[in-house]
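note to self — DONT lose this again. spent like an hour looking for the file last time. sequence + predicted structure for the chain T wanted, 328 res
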Amino acid sequence: MTVKSAATFSLRNISREFMTGAVTGAALLLFVGTAGTAVVKTLAHWHGSDAVIDHGLVAALLLNAALILFGWFRYRALSEELSTLSDAGRHAHALAQRDPLTGFLNRRSLSEDGAALFASTRRRGKAMAMLTIDIDHFKSVNDLHGYAVGDLLLAHVAETIAAIAPGTSLLARLGADEFACAFVFDSAHENVADRIAERMVAGLALPFRTNGVDIHTSVSIGIARSDRDCASVDALLRNADIALHAAKTAGRSRHAWFDTSMERSLQLRGELEAGLRSAIPAQEVVPYFEQQVDLTTGLITGFEVLARWEHPTRGMIAPDVFIPIAEE
């Protein structure tokens, strides 16, 4: 809330309270005036016309009764208002922490809650596993079936992940089609994380049926652990992302553990990807003509044109290295 909006809100509250007080005061005076006359007449009727009735005392009693009633009603109104504000605050806090589609934590909340879990895991001598889960070819689902079906698939993936993950896991949606699952395990039993990842890959390879259509999809998973050259939960998440990329490169629909060699491979890929952007304008990608020979006659029947990248610092780069990067 800005200073200007806060000031406007405060002025509105003051104005509302002033009007409430004015109306209440007028109502009290009217109540005491009219009810006081009626009460005096009633008491005179009960005690006889000769009875001496203190009008001031009657007015004071009525005023006290009215103030008590007003205070009670005002207390109820304020309690309801505070309850509404409290509910709105909790709802806003939940929206700031959670992904509205899946109910999972968002990236920021995973970083915050994950940091606390990371620290407690180290104190207990345990290990923290971070799984990053990406839906393979999710864009084609949106393109073929529409975003509404894509959202249904995302919700289905989230439900499957939640059903397989350990009960105390931190579950998050990191991006459009990427999720994360973090949990604590005994460092001597790495196969626990393997089994969980295998179940997720197998469970999400099953067809997802909606509106009479079977949607076939798969997921790739990267896994990293906190007790291996990892100083923070953000570094752990980055390592899991690197392993995820390795799983996709290896053919998708599988899981892969992070190791340091993957980091160098990813760095090299990034350098090649950046270099490709200028390679064609700089005429570094050149054609190579490979002869096609008829084995029966020995005559050349044609040529196959192959691309080679003459990198200025790395030398000749084969097409099986840079073509997959260019295609992606």
